[in-house]
Amino acid sequence: MKFDTPAGANPTDRMQVLGKPLDRYEARLKTTGTATYAYEYKDVAPNAAYGYILGAAIAKGRITAIDTTLTEAAPGVIGVVTYRNAGKPGVGKFYVQKMLAAPEVDHYHQPVAVVVAETFEQARAASALIRVDYARTDGRYDLAAQKGSAPVPPQGEFGGPNEKRVGDFEPAFAAAAVKVDETYTVPDQAHAMMEPHATIAKWDGERVTCWTSIQQMNWGTRDLGLILGIPKANVRLISPFIGGGFGGKGTVQMDLALAAISARVVGRPVKIALQRPIMFNTTIHRPKTIQRVMLGAGRDGRLTAIGHESWSGNLPGGRTEPTVASTRTFYAGPNRLTRMRLATLDLAEGNAMRAPGEAPGLMALEIAMDELAEKLGMDPVQLRVVNDTQVDPEDPSKPFSTRPFIQCLREGAEQFGWDRRNAKPGQVREGRWLIGMGMAGAIRAGKIAKSGARARLDGKGIITIEADMTDIGTGSYTVVQQTAAEMMGVAPDSIVVKLGDSTFPETPGSGGQQGAPSVTAGVYAACVKLREAVAQRLGFNSAEVDFSDGRVKSGNRSVPLADAAKGGDLLVEDVMEFDKLKDQFQQQTFGAHFAEVAVDAYTGVVRVRRALAVCAAGRILNAKTARSQVIGGITMGIGAALMEEMAIDQRFGFFVNHDLAGYEVPVHADVPHLDAFFIDEVDPTISPVKAKGVGELGLTGVAPAIANAIYNATGVRVREYPITLDKHLEGLPAIA
Ligand code: MOS
After folding, report:
1. 463 and 434 inside one domain
2. How far is the CA of 215 from the centre of ligand 1 (A)?
């Protein structure tokens, strides 16, 4: 089915099942510990051996010798895989990092060897017996030091052009009545998802099957095929349950590549989990950015010049962190310059993490807006209202498909009690606590992509939906179930959902908050076909048929849906494809974030007291899972604002705090009462289901709202994330 004109009325508008706060489809499995995660399969490869990865002890240089004699003689060892016997692993398309040091070492903890043994303990113990000699060379680990020589790279596949101009920025900025010109930094951050990367790989001739933990099956089969040098069709990935990914499991990581390579070398299935301490330096991360934001406005607050220049670093061939993406679409203003520069760094690869681009970009832009509001003597909410636009500010021929941003701002301000905020910082105290309120706007692309699904109706009236979509803890199973139930007019428990198998029809998977809108559009297409097949089988004229209450009705005739499959199951498959609407409309999601903090005037400790998000993302498919996505996003925003940072050892070039003891993320005690509300809207330009993603929207804008609240509390402006107490302690107002 092709989606090329805005959707009219259709069965999803009934909202009898869709939109409801249904419990998770797989809730019972997860809460009873019976959902099978990648490392837990017992029966699929009973003779699987255990692989243990030894990471490089240097960050840059080469291996001069590897002696594995003692390792090979160690108890239980089956084989040792290094670049000498691994074949020549290729490189996937989305991640550019090499899976094995060969013999050049590109970054610290790049895999040097996989020890394969009968047990995990034997593999780990034997890995300590490998002797590796290295020739170490100097590397580049400091973005600030490389900043001066970082070029504007040619346009990449993601994030748009690296430099873009509209109007004439420099003179407009020079002439602006009120200006902000500040530089902000967001550090290297780790996904730190709950479930470590893990894979069981099993070969059958030229074909490999991997039980793994991956967000995007289509990229995964493509990239593993490239790495192994086999056709994509010879790769099968199975990943029904995933303990979080946040972009870190977008496609093939070392566990998957090296389990498949090791299994090929030793001739047995191999299972590998990345030990937590190796994940931070081995896999991808969100790369540090240095961002200069220049805002010029008239006294009325209208932006006349918007400039955003950003620096990030990566391994050769890696991409820029697309921080300026949201600056290009968020606010009106005639003169604009956005530019991204990319340094070469010898750290692990920087790549997609938790709203890549928008999340770190707004961490800079939305503080700058707060600074501008203060200079103007204008309320920060009002500053955003006066700079709203209903057309793409860089391409006025493109209207926003929906943009209820002002509504988000106003409803948020109202619900949060924003009128109680004292605009003058450092004024509100409760005992030793300095109290502040802050806000920020949020914008995140409302993406959608080609998505397939298969539907089977059986004689009991059960409809089974299959798609290679994944559920990374987001609720994919549940929204698929709801969409199919709504389309077919049956109760949700008549729908069986099967996801996470690359042999199912292709979807874009979980990433870029496009999973739910895309997969439900594919399910819509398959269900339209199933309705036609049912009507035909039952002898109805399909144009006049109503599907409801588990029955098929037309005129006076009403037949149980199950009757259509009496003579054999009905099986259909379709793909929803998207045409030009993406080019005709600027499709985005919007939000307004509000936060209240308390800062201990003696110690500088920051506590977030409450936070509120008001979001607009088209039709909300499930009130509970969508709210959970946003609550989770706010929690990540608390981490980004206050805690998350990978510290680099500049001598030896590695992330020092490479475990969950040293890399801090919010725990329950850090997370106060959070509220999330959605604007009641649909977006008919997105798909017939009219829904956009919410997950990454929930995160973008949170950290700057907290940063602005801290400033409001203390009067000390910190422009370097995370805002740890050492950065404002000296400047805190003295209290008696
Ligand atoms: Mo996301 S960082 O697009 O999984």
Report:
1. no
2. 9
Asked if residue 124 has pLDDT above 90, the reply is yes
428-430 and 178-186 strand pairing: unpaired
Cβ of residue 98 lying under 6 Å from some atom of ligand 1: no
- Shared-domain flag, residues 434 and 457: no
Enter the tokens of residue 398. Answer: 């493109």
Task: Work out the mean pLDDT of the chain and round it to a whole number.
Answer: 97
The helix (H) or strand (E) run that includes residue 164 is strand 163-166
Q: How confident is the model at residue 154 (pLDDT cuts 50, 70, 90)?
A: confident
Residues in the chain, overall count: 736
The answer, yes or no, to whether residue 736 has pLDDT greater than 60, is: no
Amino acid, res. 232: K
Give the domain-ending residue among 215, 248, 282.
Answer: 282
How many CB atoms lie under 10 A from the CB of residue 229? 10
Q: Tell which phi-psi region holds residue 370, choosing left (phi > 0), alpha (psi between -120 and 50) or beta.
A: alpha
Cα angle 299-300-304, degrees, rounded to a multiple of 5: 80
Does ligand 1 have an atom closer than 6 angstroms to the CB of 511?
Answer: yes
Which atom belonging to ligand 1 lies closest to the Cα atom of 352? Answer: 2
Other Cβ atoms less than 10 A from the Cβ of 491: the count is 13
What letter represents residue 246's amino acid?
Answer: F
Residues 566 and 657 reside in one and the same domain:
no
The structure tokens 């910082």 sit at: 425
Number of alpha carbons in the 13 Å side-chain half-sphere of residue 68: 19
Q: Tell me the CA–centroid distance for residue 219 and ligand 1, in Å.
A: 13
Q: Considering 282, 298, 329, which residue would you say is the last residue of a domain?
A: 282
| Per-residue pLDDT, 543 | 74
Q: Give the largest Cα separation in the chain, rounded.
A: 85
